[in-house]
Design brief:
The longest helix has 14 residues. A 5-stranded mixed β-sheet has the order 1-5-3-4-2. The two termini are about 20 Å apart. It has 3 helices and 5 strands. Helix content is about 35%, strand content about 30%. Strand 3 and strand 4 form a beta hairpin. Helix 2 crosses helix 3. By secondary structure, the protein is of the alpha/beta class.
Length: about 80
């Protein structure tokens, strides 16, 4: 079972391909909802040395960053070996 953890936003790297999908209007709307209700859904990241790579939750991460937050709630997932 996944355990919710707090991650420093500046240590969560967004892959270039994923960053290109950012919708500023969606991120802004989400930032307003987070301001009212808090972060309801954690992001998902995988370990990358001492840092992390974003797997899911680009708009949530960016909304928290835009609000000036230094941390974001998330789940650490493990990459599957094929």
């Amino acid at each position: 079972m996944l355990q919710k953890t707090v991650f420093p936003i500046n240590r969560v790297r967004v892959p270039v391909k994923r960053a290109k999908t950012l919708d500023i209007a969606k991120m802004t709307e989400l930032a307003e909802k987070i301001l009212e209700h808090g972060q309801l859904t954690p992001i998902r990241v995988r370990a990358d040395g001492e840092n992390f790579v974003l797997i899911e939750g680009l708009h949530r991460r960016e909304a928290m960053k835009a609000r000036g937050e230094e941390t974001v709630d998330g789940y650490l997932v493990h990459a599957r070996l094929h």
